[in-house]
Amino acid sequence: MMFQTEFAFVLPQGYVDEEGNLHREGTMRLATAEDEVLPHRDSRVIANPMYLPIIILSRVVTRLEGVNPITSQVIMRLYAADYDYLQTLYERVNRVGRNRVAVTCPYCEKDFEVELSNSGE
Question: What is the dihedral of CA 96, 83, 65, 77, to 10 degrees?
Fold first, then answer.
């Protein structure tokens, strides 16, 4: 089995560029430690910590059909549903081992943990 480092996605709403073109399909890669650490030095993040996920997403979203480069401005212009979708996808693909939830079997009532899917879909 090959280690998956990139995850395809389709935005629920889509990014609309300055010409009115809609862009929905893209790719996100796994984050590195650098992707999570360096944005803390960014002056926008220092002034307003709400910028942190925007900067991180602009680093890990590697492709959005017909949009190049993927900048923080592109991420900021996403509709809220698409921004939330990308944040959720980021958490899912980068938190392997932390996607465990406690469940109870409805038949035997035994408690156990399950790993949530990390497929990015």
Answer: -150
The number of CA neighbours under 13 Å toward the Cβ of 119 is 3
Full residue range of the structural domain in which residue 75 is found: 6-115
Domain count, the chain: 1
Q: Tens digits of per-residue pLDDT, 48-71?
A: 999 999 999 999 999 999 999 999
Please write the tens of the pLDDT for every residue from 86-109. 999 999 999 865 555 567 778 888
Instruction: Give domain status of residue 51, yes or no.
Output: yes
Buried b (16+ CB within 10 A) or exposed e, 35-70: beeebeeeeebeeeeebebbbbbbbbbebbbeeeeb
